[in-house]
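Internal tracking record. Fields below are filled automatically when a chain is submitted to the structure queue. Please do not edit lines marked as system-generated. If the sequence contains nonstandard residues, flag them in the REMARKS field before resubmitting.
Queue: standard
Priority: normal
Entity type: single polypeptide chain
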Amino acid sequence: MNLKVFGLALAAGVATFIVAGVAVTELLQSRIEFSLLVGLPVGLVAGSLAAAVVARGVNEGEPPQRRRLATAFGAFGAGFLVVLFVGIVLSLGTIISIVIGVAVGIIVAFASYFRVHWRGV
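SYSTEM-GENERATED OUTPUT FOLLOWS
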């Protein structure tokens, strides 16, 4: 595993952990008093699965379509985390930072998936 694969898997795992953990915690907040105790394990499982899927999908032996999807998912994680960090540093608020991070992450993922390789042109 090289540094690129590790970085993409880590970014995808952490981003998925944050998004899934926050989503489950917020959805269960009105029903369960300590909803964070449910959101954290759900986020941990989702983040671990996302990191494993990206780490496996980016390998050289995988079909090109699977590699593109795994790279796009890792790029989503990286874009999301950068925007989340900037939003926290600028004191935009957690929810606003997460929403903007998801939007930017989706744009980065699409750009990564549909990028054109100019070889010899």
